[in-house]
Fold this protein.
Amino acid sequence: MPDSAIVATQKTPSYTMVHVENLGHSITPIVFNENNYDECSRSFHLALMAKGKLSYLDGTINKPAATADNFETWQSTNALVTMCIFNTIEPALRNQISIRPEAKHVWLDIKNHFNQINESRIYLLQADLFACRQGPTESLVTYYGRMTAIWNVLSELDVIPVLLGTR
């Protein structure tokens, strides 16, 4: 993409769609299934942030009145974000997701349905972190990456892991 196209994309308001956005494509390579909400959520949020459309998911852009000048543009962009959500979902799960008029409500339904925080999951993640040791042939980068992955999941669950001891 030429530099001028990048600059034009960055200056485009959130209410508008850019010509490269396509309803038939997923915006993230990660396909959402019932077991990877955390990973898919991170990827999806980053992808929408890169496109300047995250505000449709977090609700910071409110739906304008039907008589407002920007209503049709908001409606088109909201539909685009909603389609991006559905294109990211594994086909077998799509029937479990309610189609709502606003992308933020679709995402909240997904979060409420699939982001189940439970004590046993938190305990297992904390136990994995406590037991995490660098293997004899494992590089420091790989070891640190495994620990960071666990910390990332725990931080997204808003849990501060407590280590009971060290060796």
User: Anything to note?
Assistant: Residues 3-114 form one domain. The chain has two domains: 3-114, 119-156.
